[in-house]
UniProtKB/TrEMBL annotation:
It comes from the Bacteria. This is DUF3576 domain-containing protein. It comes from Candidatus Scalindua brodae.
C-alpha cells in the first residue's frame, strides 16, 4: 500500500469515530454513566441512599443476612437452599414417580451506592448445585447464574420504591 492510501484510511477512521468500529453512542444520564455501560444486574433509582438501603433490606424478605455494612454499602445474605428448576437427576421416566431435581443454593452480595439524589443497586449471585444421589451428592458445584435471581431482587426493590 502506498503512504497516501494509509493516510486516507487513518484519516477516515478519525473522522468517523466510534461508529466505524461499532461503539455505542448512547447518551449520558445526569449522573455521568451511559445507559449502555450498566450491566443487567445493576439498576439506578431516583431515591436517596437511606431510602434505597431500607427498601433493599425489605425486598430481601426472610433471607438470612450474614453481613450488613452500611458505610460500605454492602449486604451479604446467607445460603438459601431449594431445588433447581432446570436440572433433573434422572430420566423422564423416574421423574414421573419422583420429584428428582438437583439441589440448589445461592447467596447474594448486594452493593448500594449513591447520594441524596440517586442510588445504584448491584446484585451478584453465587449459585451452586449438586445432584440428589451418587458420590457427587456430597459436593456443591458452582454454576453460572442465569440472572433470574438478581432480576427478581431488583424488580421487588423497584416495586417497593414505587409503592412508597
Amino acid at each position: 500500500m502506498s503512504n497516501t492510501k494509509i493516510f486516507l484510511i487513518i484519516s477516515l477512521s478519525f473522522l468517523t469515530g466510534c461508529s466505524l468500529f461499532g461503539c455505542s453512542s448512547s447518551y449520558r444520564s445526569d449522573y455521568g454513566v451511559t445507559h449502555a455501560q450498566l450491566p443487567k444486574d445493576t439498576r439506578t433509582f431516583n431515591d436517596d441512599f437511606e431510602h434505597v438501603w431500607a427498601t433493599v433490606i425489605m425486598a430481601l424478605g426472610n433471607m438470612p443476612l450474614d453481613k450488613i455494612d452500611k458505610e460500605k454499602g454492602i449486604i451479604k445474605t446467607g445460603w438459601v437452599q431449594g431445588y433447581s428448576q432446570t436440572r433433573k437427576a434422572r430420566s423422564a421416566i423416574t421423574d414421573r414417580f419422583l420429584e428428582d431435581y438437583w439441589k440448589e443454593r445461592y447467596k447474594l452480595t448486594i452493593t448500594i451506592s449513591g447520594n441524596i439524589m440517586a442510588s445504584s443497586v448491584t446484585v451478584r449471585c453465587q449459585l451452586q448445585q449438586k445432584p440428589r444421589g451418587g458420590s457427587a451428592a456430597y459436593r456443591w458445584e458452582r454454576v453460572k447464574s442465569t440472572g433470574e435471581i438478581e432480576e427478581e431482587v431488583l424488580r421487588r426493590t423497584e416495586e417497593l420504591l414505587e409503592e412508597g
